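Objective 1b: paired records.
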Amino acid sequence: MTDLTLTANKTNSNNLLRRDVRFLGNILGEVLVHQGGQELLDIVEKIRELSKSLRAVYLPELYDEFKQLINTLNPDNRHQVIRAFAIYFQLVNIAEQNHRIRRKRDYERSAGETVQPGSIESVILEMKENQISEDELQTMLSGMSLELVMTAHPTEAMRRAILDIHKRIAKDVMQLDNPTLTHREREQLREKLLNEIITLWQTDELRDRKPTVIDEVRNGMYYFNETLFDVLPEVYAELERCLDKYYPTQSWHVPTYLRFGSWIGGDRDGNPSVTSTVTWETMKMHRGLAIRQYDQRLRDLMRTMSFSTSIVDVSKELLDSIELDRSNVVLKNVPEWNNPKEPYRVKIIYMLQKLHNVMEETTKGTSERYQMASEFIQDLKLIDNSLRHHFADYAADTHIKKLIRQVELFGFHMATLDIRQHSKEHENAMTEILSNMNIVEDYSALAEQDKIELLNRLLNDPRPLTSPYISYSESTKECLDVYRIVHEAQLEFGHSCITSYLISMAQGASDVLEVMLLAKEVGLFREEANGDVRCTLQAVPLFETIDDLHAAPQIMSQLFELPIYRKAVSAMNDLQEIMLGYSDSNKDGGMLTANWELRVALNELTDTAKEHQVKLKFFHGRGGALGRGGMPLNRSILNQPPHTIGGGIKITEQGEVLSSRYSMQGIAYRSLEQATSALLQGAMLARYPQVNVEEEKWEMLMPSISETAQKKYQDLIFRDPGFLTYFKESTPLPEIGELNIGSRPSKRKNSDRFEDLRAIPWVFAWTQSRYLLPAWYAAGTALDKFYNNNPENMATMRNMYENYPFFASMIDNLQMALAKADLLIAKGYASMITDDSIRERIFALVEEEYKLTSKMLLEITGQREILDNVPVIQESIRLRNPYVDPLSYMQVELLTELRALRESGEDDPLLLREVLLTINGIASGLRNTG
């Protein structure tokens, strides 16, 4: 296909996006008139036009008119105007998500045999062209692993009821592309959409209470139920299709390399609501969803399995298994199939009953139920083999193959649950336990080396440290109960239901050994008399701050050198999981320094593990926002040094990332397809490194650039006495905590210290106030210092941007942050600061750094404007800004009014509600929270 045809298709496709936005915008206009009268629509249009004009040409008199119009709105109109702009963004986001699916379909339809870049087929074709053999490819597939872990981090500002409406609207808007619709059907579609948008207008977008942990568990399960259960096996099927196409001499069954996990119901760090009881309930809910999904699939299968023994010969193994089921399984919940000549249906009836019995306590340990998911797979394979026996291969491939893959992926536990707790909680519990046993009076006061020696000795001692006859404090009792629940869960739901215990703020080897010792108390870790070690739960250190990243290689080396710990790692297939925190490292050292130090830690930890013959699985704790390491999934994989991904990768998926990536099947598929493609590319690069002789030299330049950035960042954030005042007064930080978007408190402790503020509200607040400061601040100074007005240094950075992927990714992320930031709007937020000297001094610092960073990025990239390299995103931001700006200006006015009221000891729930509505609206407009 010619480039001209591709360009024409792209132009036509963009026209369809504009059509959808205009179509939905017009319907919203009708809704505004219907609900608030023509006056409401006129006000909204006037504000929009003024905002647009201001973006085109800034004139002081135009700005005054704009501010005057907003300030003179009466409370009722203001409330409706805020909602109008916020809902407009929701509709634009729906249109853009639909457009992503449309673009993929357009490409596939018009490209013919052309392979889409970033697809699974593109990388398999590349491997074939590079003459990678079947054996090599099989080895790569066997070593590949990606686990995407859903977290309950409070960054999804939207209610589930709103997301459900969005899904219905998206489905209807898709129908606009259907060329077979009649005129009347199009009218009916428009009426349906009008009804949905009225429903959206009349649905409260704010939660009236904080969600419970169980609410959050249900929210996470929504994505498994709605998209992932079907999409994940489709990605596997596509990979197998491509392997069959390009490597046809081998029969391919791809090993499990891509799966989803969860923290929701397991992450108790700073969240007292996540108890051992809640964790158990979470596991039961996960299993319930898995069983319901399999039940529905088997019932669907029943309708197609009408094969009759009057016509075909089924396998003897199938008939024997039916006889065995008849003697072992009593049909209580499903009726017996009365046509014995339809053996598949007879078999499925017994399978349904055995599935139902998995949930029954009375059938535990009996042949009336499946004890493990592998037994369910065994029955499915019996059916599969029998179908192939009488040449019904197509039925086996279409119906059974996918279901077998689903059981392999989801088991009876649906998603592997991680446990997470703060290291201090384990230390406190250990102090109490050891004091009770008269082993040491105050364990917490010991030096780190003394702790390591004591813990090592106790791990090698088979005697228990706890007793049911000793009373413990509530916190220690709960700490121990978590381990007991994990042990029970592994027995009840299978060992793979929980395998990792993450330790927040791990700062020494003792933090890891404490978890091992507590696991030993309940049998999750033990050394047998013959010296063999059994370990079914791995302690996973989470290194979060810059100092922790520096210390990490030494900490892991200390652990690997302990024989008892090394045996525990051997019991986990010589694989050690390590988590790296992008959010707290960014909050601690700034974007540039955090990115560099994470890269250094990845390389040094990999080298350390290699010395001890250990493979590492790195868990990347990325957020959705740029200030927390956020980026597209495939880029986050390709961003890793290839030699560091050999043991597998885990990545957190949270908040608005979940709804934007996984609420629609088409987008979920494309995201996971690109992730698979990136994994395969990474595996290929690890096996056949592309050596750039200059890269080593560039890596030598980065430490000094990073040090300059860290000093500049910390001079403001940690060492400027006025900074905390500036931050709290010029952002909606205090009000974000009232948004009811998560069960977890915004601070680890009830403290006003910066160190105790979580990274999510830190980033969320800066995003709302349009600074996006954590995502770019200090980078300009660091790059400029290296440049030092030396043309050769600028030529070096330009070369790095062209040929050094780490540097290029960092520069492009900085571009994205600067494009979304707006210091004219941010200056309005700064007007809320009561101390003039703090406001003027710090804003001047921020503004100067913003200009310097912009200047340096344009010099390095050779662009005329920020984001010229990705015009689609540049245009999207440009089109969104005139609609976000009014919400920002109104938020400043509302915050000023609300805070003055609260300062005088009064409050206004309606005023707070309007503030929270602007927070939701800006989050939708910028497509970022935290």
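Objective 1b, second protein:
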Amino acid sequence: MSLPKASLVAGARIRVRDTEWVISHVERNAVSGSLVHATGLSGIVRDKEAIFVEDVERKRGRGIEVVDPADVALVADASSGYLDTLLHVEAALRKSAPTGEAIQVAGKAAIDDLDFQLDPVRLALKAPRTRILVGDDVGLGKTLEAGLLASELILRRRAKRILVVATKAMLTQFQQEFWTRFSIPLVRIDSARIRQIRTRIPLNHNPFDQFDKAIISIDTLKNDRQYRTALETAWWDLIIIDEAHNVAERKGAGGVSQRNQLAERLASRSDGLVLLSATPHDGSRRSFASLMRMLDPTSIADPERYGPDDIKGLFVRRFRTNPAVREAIKTKVRPRATEKLTFSPSGAEEAAYGILAELTLAEDETARNKGQRLFKTILEKALFSSPAACAETLTKRLAKLEGEASPGSQADRAALTELLHAVQAIGGDDFTKYARLVRLLADIKWQARRKDDRIVVFSERIATLEWLGEHLRRDLGLTEDQVRTLHASGPDADAKAQALVRDFGLEKSPVRIMLASDMASEGLNLHYLSHKLVHFDLPWALLTFQQRNGRIDRYGQERQPQVWYLVAQPAQPKIRGDLRVLEKLIEKDAAAGENIGDPSAFLGTNDELDQEDVVASAIENGVSAEAFDAQMDARAAANDNPGDDPYASLEAFFGLAQDETPVLTPGMDGRGEGRPTLFPDTFAFAVAALQRLDVPGTSFKTKVAEGERVITLPIPKDFRERSETGGHATGVINARFMPPEAEPEDGMLRLTDDRSLISDRIRTSRQGTGGGWPDLQYLWDVHPAVDWLADKVTTVFGRRSAPVGRLVGRLAKDEAAFVFNGTVPNLKGHPLVDEWPVVVFRAGEVVGVEPIRAFISRTGLGTDEIPNVGTTAVEDLRALVPEAVQRAQTFVHEARKRYQGEMDTEVLRLSERRDALRARHVEVLQLRFDGMDELAPQRKRKADEEAGLKRMFDGWWDWVRQTRETPDNPDPYVRLVAVFRG
């Protein structure tokens, strides 16, 4: 029959053009009738999205037909133990969407079960919208926390399309972590993939529509206009931005960067947004406010003045000193061992230091008057790195001075030339810091033949890294492949960086020493085969210490991290005093880890360049090491008693804006019951489903090693991309099922649910030829193969059919139980109510409706084998179907009313918050324009901002309405899944 308008509601199943669809939402249109947004359920339209125009479909002939829930064929199950029925019900249970606040992924992913890592999930499930910042300390597992949250949303059918934005060097690592630990397949879109995509799709197609789950570099987006535009027009369910401080608005002039603008546009293209950063602010309220506004544009009216309540619920921020964190990781993370290695400079170095100490430059007088860093300080920083770095800086500056005839320029050129000659006179044998590095390698008996004893050497200057590479290879007899350099310059830098980071963690790769610039100091896992790190030059920012050391001193490091600082002790008093200032940073970094947690408190800012400016200022003003130490202690003390210190006030403010994470005990941690199930676990379901489907004519050929918990089968044809015409499968892996890089070379799919085994295989993949991609895949509810198996087993009885089985001795002889699933979505099509009513008849009369969990418990369904007693009568049951449908609909409708009552209360609270926030925004806007001349440009600007404010709040409220309202349909769609009789 033609679907009446009253029935065109979200959640209804419809038949259009001989295919079945489920309505996600409906737009009313007075001219063309309803616009029905739907998702395909059957055949080639499965998971496809479409919009049907009611009048157009009517004119085509058959129109839009309702799928009558009572129009279902009852099929007696002849399978042994009614296995087909059990699989059919289990598949439906697994395709349903869990609702409520009980965490589904707790203790199930292929990671250690650390409760504090579930806090972002708890926060997201309580929030109206999944939009949060995870600001945990370096090395505490922010990627894993993002993986847990993404997995939870996938299970809840709220994250079909996911985009991850990361740094270039992090793309492969992030992709592997999401796949190997959470079975989430991300397509890596780097420079090579972009070239490939451009040859495969027409220019007018959006490349991001080709992939449901992707990962891309923020700089790739920033530098590629075509892809930036395409991304800004795509829609995602969840966007994750790693190292999010890189996209925050920075304080000072030019604070709104291209990255910041891009991130703000991305924030409007997704319901869910997760920002990850160990340093989520630069010491200014405006910086942090820019990230909070990405999460919730209405939250903050004035970025310089806002309170804890404005941002409560939008972020979590923990350090290793947090009690819950310390308790969780106390046996997982070994304390770091650090050592300062001192040495006396050579005569040639002392000569250069002497000239540098006495250097006076005309240009520095100008810089000092402008409050800029002195070029002399830049030279000192370069010389502290290496003679090669200092010579490079001097040569570039002298080239700029060529042709300048002013007396100051000529004097500067003469002074800089003298220093250049002194620096160039420092030969390899005179470079005592390098000699100390070589001696260190000898003292610790380091040998290149050991595959698991790799060393990371950090320097901020590429010239220093290149010099080190050349001389280490020569002096230690190492090859080009054994000593590699990681920095961001050159063509295809992203691909090269990813390859080197991957190789550094692979046993089979020859690399033994990584010479790394600070591009490697953010987020990268370098701890797999390395626990030794050398700071060849001392950072001028505590944030750099934290980030560098965090590459090997992080969760998952199995050996004690060892860190060395190379510290010169020159005779020249000024230079020695400046180096003593830097030594104080070493001490403060260690103190932070033991006490306050955040080392940036010592410098009063969380911006790396600002921290360097604080140190540079102390050096330029001749502040002694002792006085500088006292200044840092005073700032840290202000962190406990904020007063007027901006950084301390902001950190204390964070404490007020989030609840202290308690050390939770079982039963109090939000880990409720998972979905009902008829099988012991996902492995048992997968085995039963594959064996049921592995019949003559199929290519599954499944092998099961029960003891090892491993399932092996050839990669199914469904896992391959279809040809252009949608026909036979091609040889290319479909990225919906696994990342192309993870495809096994032998074409065999190996699945295990053993978390310990998968962790071992991840380690093994770094030892052999796997390239970090293990030969086993982790089988749990999130793995795409589970969804695929659920789809497959539902076809056993055919479309619009429900199996019938007998539970002799478990149900009364005259008893029949009709198992239904009913879902009520919001106006955006996301499921909010998911109920499983079981309508029970006795002697043809309804005696009650019970939840499926109670029915399973009462009958013991799935707990042991049920003998198939032979022929099962179904004719008498058909007459009961209409009443069973009506009772199930009533059950679901009542659940919907209860839920909507709760939502109405929340919507009322949100409306009060909206009104208060809007009033605050209007007040701030009015204050900003008060006192301005009433000129046309100002009036227009004010009108534009008022219009923008209205659009922002209207858009936010429209989102609230669409996500918190459910269709008021007294007859919601329910699906008869199965029938059991006594």
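Residues 406 and 412 are 10 Å apart (CA to CA). Confidence is low (pLDDT under 50) at residues 1-6, 661-668.
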